[in-house]
User: Fold these one by one.
Assistant:
Number 1:
Amino acid sequence: MRPIFLRSVFRVAIIATPILLGLHYFITHVLALIHIFFQHPGIAITQREVANAYLNGTLQESRKAPQIPKIIHQIFHNWKDPANETLPSDWEQQRHTCIDINPDWEYRLWTHKSSLAFLSTHYPTFLPAYLSYPHPVQRVDALRYFLLYHYGGIYLDLDNGCLPSIKSGSSSLDALTYFPLWITDGGRGALSNNILAARPNHPFWGRVVAELIEGRGALPLGSLTERLAGFWKRWWCLWGVLRYVEISWGVGQWFIGGVWDKYHRMLQLGKKDAVGGKIVLEGVDEEIGDHLWIFSMVLGSLVGLMGWLVRRYWRAQRGKGYRKVKGEDMEDRSE
C-alpha cells in the first residue's frame, strides 16, 4: 500500500504552517499599530503642573540632582540647498526665544554637515541606513533620537519656542531636567516627537537606536532599489495619506509610540534589558512575548490541525480492514 494519505498530511502541514505563522505576524503588527492610538503607559503631567510644583517647592524630583543635561538640540536641514544654513525668519525668532530665556543652557543647531559628521564619528554603522531613507524628514526624525541617546538634553522642532519663566531668575526649562525621560502627548492618540528629552544613554532611546541600526524604515542600497524608491515617491506616494503613514510608522511618531509602549511592557514584566543601559536588538522572543495569547492561539491551531490529520489517517487505515491478497500471493501460500 502506498502512503498516499500520509503524503497528503505532510503536504497540508507544509502549506498550513507558513500561512498560520504569516497570520500571526500580520495580526500582531496590526494590533501593535492600533494600540499606539489608545492610552499610553507612564505618568501624564503637564508642563505647567511641573513648573508650578517646581516653583512651590513641591516637586519631589527637584530634591535630587538634575538628570537631563542643559543642552537644547534643534535640527535644520535645507532640503533644497543643503549648503545654505540660513534659517527662515520665523524659525530664527522661535529659536531665540529658547536661547535668550535659557542663557546658561548649551545650544546646538544641527545642519546637514554637522549631522553627517556626528553619525560618521559615533554611529558609522547606521550611516548607510540614514542615507537610504526615501524621505528627507526621516533623516531629521532619526537624527534626534541618536542625539538624545548620545548627549541627552531637550530636543525641540524649530517651529516650537520657549515661554518666559513664571519666576524671574529661573530658567523656563530647568524644571523639566529632573525627569530622566519624557515625551510629549499631543492628545490626538499617538505620541509626538516634536519635543523630547532624556538623560544620556537612557535605555528607552537605546532600544529606539537599536531598531534604527537594524534598518527600520531604510531601503537597501543598489540601483534596482533606488529605481523602485523613485517610482514609489513619484507615483504611489502621490497619495498623501500613504506617504504620511510610511513616514510616521517608519521612523516617525507612530514608531516612537510603539517602542514607548513596548518598553513599558518590558518594565512591567521586569525584564532586565528594559532597566539597564544595554542596547538590545529586537528579536523573535520579544515579538512572541508581546502577544503571547495570539501566539498560543496560532500554535494551538497548528497542533490541532496536525492532530486532526493524524486521526483521519489512522481511521482511514482501520477502515480498510484486511489487505486483499493478490493471486501470486495465493499461489505462493498454496505451495
Number 2:
Amino acid sequence: MWAPLRAEGGRSLDLHRHKSSLSDVRERTLIAVKPDGVQRRLIGQIIQRFEQRGFKLVGLKMLQATQDVLSEHYCHLRTKPFYGNLLHYMTSGPLVVMVWEGHNVVQTSRTMVGNTNPAEALAGTVRGDFSIHVSRNVVHASDSVEGAQKEIQLWFQTKDLLDWDLWDQTSTDDV
C-alpha cells in the first residue's frame, strides 16, 4: 500500500500533487547525433545510453540542417580555420536532434559524450566508443545551461517539446 513520504516534522510530501513543481527544477540539454553517427546507425545506441542514465526525452527530430541554422549554432567558431569544413560536414547528411531533461543533465551529458577529440575521450563515453576522428565525433552536446537554452530555442519550437511524466511504481495507483 502506498504511504506518503514524510518531511522533517511529519509533514506529508504528496509527490503526485506536486509533479509539476518537481519538473520545474529539471534542466534541459540539446544532444545531436551528427551525420557520421546517423550514417553508422548509432542513433539507437546513443538514445539508449541517455535513457539508461535516467534522463527523459522531451523532443526529437531528424532533419537536414541548413547553413543558416548551423551558422547560428556554431557562431562561436566562425573565426576558426575549420569552420567551413564543419559546416560542409554538418550539411552532408541528416542529423537527429534531441532535447533531454533531468537533474544536472547538461554536465552529466558532457561527461557521457566525452572529449571532443576521440583520441582523448575515455572508453565508455559515446566519443570514446564510437568516434573516429575529431572532425567526425558522432555527437554534439550543449556545453552549459545557458548554451542549452539557446540551442533548444534554435532547433525546436516550444510546441515541439513534450511535457510528460515518467511512469513509475506510484503510477500503479491509477490503474
